[in-house]
Amino acid sequence: MPFAEHPLPETDPLAGRFRSFDRVQTPALGRTLARWAAGLGGLVLLAGFLPWTQNIRSAGTLTTLRPQDRPQTVPSTIAGRIARWHVREGQRVKKGDTLVDITEIKEKYFDPRLVQRTGEQLNAKLGVLGENRAKDRALRGQQQALRAGLQVSLGKARNKVRQSRLKVGSDAADLVAVRADYAIAQRQQQRQEALYGQGLKSLTEVEQRRLRFQEATAKQQSAENKLAASRQELASAELELAALAAEYEDKLAKSESDRRSVTAYQFDTEGQIAKMRNELATLRIRAGYYQVTAPQDGYVVRALKQGLGEMVKEGEAVVTVMPQAPALAAELYVKPMDIPLLRVGRRVRLQFDGWPALVFSGWPGSSFGTFGGTVAVIDNIDSQGQYRILVTPDPAQEPWPKPLRVGSGVYGWALLDDVPIWYELWRQLNGFPPNFAGGPGAGTADKSDKKADKAAKTGDGEEDTK
Q1: Would you tell me how many other CB atoms lie within 10 Å of the CB of residue 405?
Q2: What's the domain count of the chain?
């Protein structure tokens, strides 16, 4: 390789005596390489002061923000046998569309007219209840009549007692008068007998006094007998009054017992009617479960039961349905040491599986094929050593691709503060977390955080998840 000639200064007295001075010279390529190395080193040094966006990397899958948008299995409410399929896998269905028909397998529900016959039984029970209520009303009327008759009979009996008492008083007064006549007749007879013994009265006069005395005695005996009879009538009237009250009380008690029996039977009938109504309503509702319907608009993903005639248990899943147009969200898992740096509203860049992308994590503006999002949910408990966050599309950024499906993979970068590249390298080498206290980026807040703070102060932003 030729070397450039660099003659030695003529002042050197030994330059002309040795030929090695002509061969040992600095080549031009070396000097060029040295200049390039110095320039690249300067560029690297200057690049160390370029801004670098700190970020938290995480991976996960696509899910939905609302539980009703996630794939769901449609169960059979009742046990039965598959009779007919109305859909195929991948078919679009609307809410209420019949997916599969099911027939009964329980003997209790084999009768095709079971609902009608149960209704007839209910109507019969309602008729029995109506008759019981009519009987109850009749017994109440009977009791009212008995009470009214008791009052009338008691009034009559009391009047009879009062009459008997008045008669006893009258007979007692007559007896007193008769006894007075008897005493007078007795004294007159005694005087006549004495005068007759003295010869002052004739036998005829004495016999007349004797006859009068006998009449007075008979009247006294008659008055006493009449008073005794009146008292007996009074006692009989009082006994009749007591017996009448007891008799009506017995009738009223029996009527009340019958009425209460009817009331108890009525309550029992009402309970049976309520039970039959419940059974009839259950049968009618059960009749609507012979068709398994779609709970919402969506697509049939997979049939979990195959063929016809296959048995299905109560609550067993039959079909898997994916809701139509779900609100997608990225489900990412973050290390516990990075959770304090996240908050609701933090911006996130996402890369989806199957979507071409060129990612520069430190320069999100230079990346290609990534999409914007914001943190919507941060779990309060960990899941296998990591915390789950849900990221929803950022309305201010480009929309997510429409072909995305629930369950596909996704990678995310939660954007933090801007720091120099040299600081980021120094942080990585020392194992410090992002936003290390005292670092260059410690006082630089992310724009999304500023917006979130402003929205929180005005009451328009979402509250932070603790």
Answers
A1: 12
A2: 4
Q: Same domain for 225 and 156?
A: yes
Rounded Cα distance, 466 and 459, in Å: 18
Note the pLDDT tens digit of each residue in 227-244.
788 888 878 888 887 888
- Chosen domain end from 267, 288, 309: 288
Residue ranges making up the domain that contains 152:
114-288
Cα distances (Å, whole numbers) of residue 439 to 55, 414, 430: 15, 19, 13
Q: Is residue 38 part of a domain?
A: yes
Question: Which of 21-30, 109-118, 288-297, 393-402 is the least confident region?
Answer: 21-30
**Window from 89-98, 180-189, 285-294, 394-403 with minimum mean pLDDT:** 180-189
Any domain includes 107: no
SS3 229: helix
Judgement on whether residues 141 and 163 belong to the same structural domain of the protein: yes
Same domain? For 180 and 254 the reply is yes
pLDDT beyond 90 at 74: yes
**Based on the number of CB atoms within 10 Å of its own CB, is 206 exposed (0-12), middle (13-18) or buried (19 or more)?**
middle
pLDDT at 177 over 60: yes
Same-domain status, 232 and 340: no
- How far apart are the C-alpha atoms of 291 and 280, rounded to whole Å? 19
Burial 456-466 (b: 16+ CB within 10 A, else e): beeeeeeeeee
Instruction: Pick the closest to residue 90 from 303, 250, 244, 332 (CA basis).
Output: 303
pLDDT confidence band for 161 (50 / 70 / 90): confident
- What is the Cα–Cα distance from 126 to 216, expressed in whole angstroms? 81
- Can you give the pTM of this predicted structure? 0.56
- Residue 22 confidence class, pLDDT cut points 50, 70, 90: low
Residue with tokens 């079971």: 114
CA distance 349 to 56: 10
Structure tokens at 391: 């990221």
**DSSP per residue, 304-359:** SS-SSS-EE-TT-EEEEEEESS--EEEEEEE-GGGGGG--TT-EEEEEETTS--B-
Q: Compute the distance between CA of residue 350 and CA of residue 408 in angstroms, rounded to an integer.
A: 13
**Other Cβ atoms closer than 10 A to 96:** 11
Structure tokens at 236: 């009989």
Q: How far, in Å, are 20, 98, 317, 386 from residue 304 at the CA level? A: 92, 16, 7, 33
Using a pLDDT cut of 90, give the percent of the chain over it: 16
Among 63-72, 116-125, 340-349, 442-451, name the one with the lowest average pLDDT: 442-451
The per-residue pLDDT of the chain, averaged, comes to 79
